[in-house]
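Backbone-to-sequence.
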């Protein structure tokens, strides 16, 4: 598998001076742990407020499920040496389950409102040294978002922005007044003007940096079939479409078409120009090209199975700290997730009277395998 970068050939990318991973790529600022704890408490506060509206507990972000699909991760055995890292060291196939979502914490958010969209997945059957949080289950959890830069760019920024959203979330004019007083105004307001398009055509990004075996990288999913690419032109029209159009589009698509994504990595070469701690800056793909390491394949299926949706929302969770040490989440936003994700999950189970289930295989999840995946 090769690069998707115009005239640049794979051989041009082998000998570049990629920065090797060590603990020095992270610089923890003073008072970060206090900021992280404050964010965890604010997220829990928001969850309780949503519970008072819906009488059901939801996650602190990405509360609206748009679809859940099952498929395969396929890794080629002919990758160049610099891409044979961690999970991708050897060729193989792995079962995968993935969830499409809308990012905000409101499960009833109108699909016609432009907002970032998410794609989260569990990869089953991985082997290697795991982080303690997920050591009991051989899964690798991966999170993506439809915007390449993360507005909650570090713990300090997250604390400030969540505080503003809690105070002024019902008053957009006042919220914008507060955001326009910040130096990162453009980054913070960008979420309200994202392109609202068919999720099957939407490119997804890790936003934050991760260890990539010997190196450091960000990653991305690129819709790769012609059918998916054509759907990019299909945008949500508030005067024509229903409030739940995104999940309807997905359901119609997956009932008739298979989908494929290229999984691409962008390696760290210049830590000053490619910050690891601050996720609000995009790593320039013209300077630091995306390179394909694997593909995801999802056969035709029902993408909105109600039993599976309920199981995921009530019992499962995706956490980037559930996985391989060699794919360690890096930077301030990921250190925050290590605290906030379990705190959010714990409250959700308490509110719903449920216990979290750590699934070990695809067959432990409700719903049959798609026919094309049947054993």
């Amino acid at each position: 598998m090769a690069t998707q970068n115009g005239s640049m050939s794979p051989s041009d990318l082998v000998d570049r001076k990629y920065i090797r991973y060590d603990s020095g790529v992270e610089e923890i600022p003073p008072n970060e742990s206090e900021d992280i704890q404050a964010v965890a408490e604010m997220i829990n506060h928001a969850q309780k407020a949503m519970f008072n509206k819906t009488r059901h507990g939801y996650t602190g972000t990405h509360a609206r499920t748009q679809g859940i699909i099952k498929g395969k991760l396929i890794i080629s055995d002919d990758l160049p040496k610099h891409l044979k890292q961690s999970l991708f060291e050897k060729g193989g196939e792995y079962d995968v389950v993935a969830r499409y979502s809308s990012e905000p914490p409101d499960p009833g958010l109108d699909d016609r409102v432009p907002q970032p969209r998410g794609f989260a997945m569990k990869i089953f059957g991985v082997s290697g040294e795991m982080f303690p949080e997920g050591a009991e289950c051989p899964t690798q959890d991966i999170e993506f978002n439809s915007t390449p830069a993360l507005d909650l760019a570090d713990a300090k920024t997250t604390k400030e922005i969540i505080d503003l959203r809690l105070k002024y979330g019902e008053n957009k004019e006042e919220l914008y007044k507060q955001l326009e007083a910040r130096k990162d105004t453009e980054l913070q307001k960008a979420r309200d003007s994202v392109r609202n398009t068919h999720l099957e055509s939407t490119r997804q990004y890790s936003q934050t940096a991760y260890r990539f075996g010997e190196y450091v990288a960000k990653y991305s999913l690129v819709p790769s079939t012609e059918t998916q690419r054509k759907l990019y032109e299909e945008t949500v029209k508030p005067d024509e479409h229903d409030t739940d159009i995104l999940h309807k589009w997905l359901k119609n698509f997956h009932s008739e078409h298979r989908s494929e994504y290229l999984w691409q990595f962008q390696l760290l070469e210049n830590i000053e120009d490619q910050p690891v701690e601050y996720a609000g800056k995009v790593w320039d793909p013209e300077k630091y090209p995306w390179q394909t390491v694997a593909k995801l394949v999802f056969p035709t299926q029902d993408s909105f199975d109600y039993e599976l949706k309920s199981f995921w929302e009530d019992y499962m969770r995706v956490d980037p700290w559930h996985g391989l040490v060699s794919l360690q989440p890096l930077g301030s936003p990921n250190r925050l997730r290590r605290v906030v994700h379990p705190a959010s999950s714990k409250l959700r189970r308490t509110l719903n009277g449920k216990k979290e289930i750590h699934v070990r295989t695809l067959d432990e999840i409700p719903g049959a395998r798609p026919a094309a995946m049947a054993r």
